[in-house]
Amino acid sequence: MNVDYNGVASAFTNSAQESFMFSNGEVLAKLFVFSDDTIEIISSKLQDVSSFDPYTIVMTNATFAQFTETYLQYARDSPALAEDERHKLLCRVAELYIAVQAGSQGSWLAPVMRPVALALCRSAQRAYAAIGDSGAYTQTASLLLRLLIDLLSDSSPMETSKKLGSLFVAALLLRISLRTSAAPGAYASKALEVKRMWNLPVFSRRDRTSYSYWLGRYYLVCYYVDSAQSQLEYAFNSCPEWHFHNKRAILRHLLVANMIRGRLPSLQLLEKYEMEPVYAHLAHHFRKGNLAGFQHVLAENLEFFRSQGNYLILLERTEILIYRNALLRLSRIRGLTISYSDILVAFRLSSQNLDMDVLEMESILSSLISQKMVLGFLFHHQQLANLSKKQPFPPIMSVGRAPNA
After folding, report:
1. How far apart are CA 184 and CA 215, in angstroms?
2. What is the C-alpha to C-alpha distance for residues 335 and 328, in angstroms, rounded to an integer?
3. What's the predicted TM-score (pTM) here?
4. At what angle do helices 135-152 and 185-193 cross, to 10 degrees?
5. Residue 131, helix vs strand vs coil
6. Residues 6 or more apart from 350 whose CB is under 8 A from it?
7. How does pLDDT run across 317-339, given as a tens digit for each residue?
8. DSSP assignment of 67-91, as one string?
9. Which candidate among 32, 214, 237, 372 keeps its CA 20 to 30 Å from the CA of 95?
């Protein structure tokens, strides 16, 4: 017997070859694992192996043999590698898996695809955290895009098609596309194609919920607020109550989409899901028409909202709505015919911008009326705003609602 013989490597390759020959994806998924604890154990068993060629040379499929050999190299070496080098090696594993899947028929490899794709995303996050370079995300997005293209190219019946994994991979692609240095649509456009299959019963509730969450986040970044709200609401309602952490994560973004459409959360909802106090503070200032207070709270929590990807949309899309609420509160005091001087005072108090002049104030009023957030007329020469007697402040939810994308 060869002195370099390694029983773990031999048993692994033999089991992998047998499972591949019989198209047994479930067994393969138990072999090709990527959890840190398992990788550590496998690594300790393979340290005396300098080359895996003697073990994989008997495999009948050359691409699968390469995939197996590269995975074993990854398992042996990755615990000792820096995160960026570890990610590069894992990308090579994923690249070879995609080649194996491209040469297969049907969905039997799906149990392997899921851990490979998930490991790739988690590795990209760790590599980025270690070196601060978004290149890891870009490389991962490119691989997920290739994987999704292969899944969608399968023309076999849906029940046995590779397309069964498309919703899962599309969700991951949307997730990673938000992290790349490229515009989100550069990688997400293919993931959006999957939406037409979203309602098919062959997809699990878990995959539909995950896809809706990441699609909602993508829409929110692109400022498609109505579509984001619809997707995030579905994800929140579909997520089981016992997935408390996940529901809370979804709610962070749903609250933003709802706020931009004028729907504020109740204290009971915020308390139920133990939301960060900042959401209650923002809702308070929004409701009171206090723009300066709102923006102060937002600035104090800049890093938190940046990490969520919601800072800019909250900063840019709420300003006009808060001025609307300031005008609403003023109308309860002054009635439906209000002088420009009173509105100017109200807007200056709201924004704490004492340099605001009548022309700037009038442009805000014009914007509110043109967007039908306020119903009424402006009389420039008389310096008056005459609000409609019938529902001068229609619900923001009903104003300019776009159809779902």
Report:
1. 11
2. 10
3. 0.89
4. 20
5. helix
6. 289, 290, 291, 292, 322, 323, 326
7. 999 999 999 999 999 999 999 99
8. HHHHHHHHHHHGGGS-HHHHHHHHH
9. 214
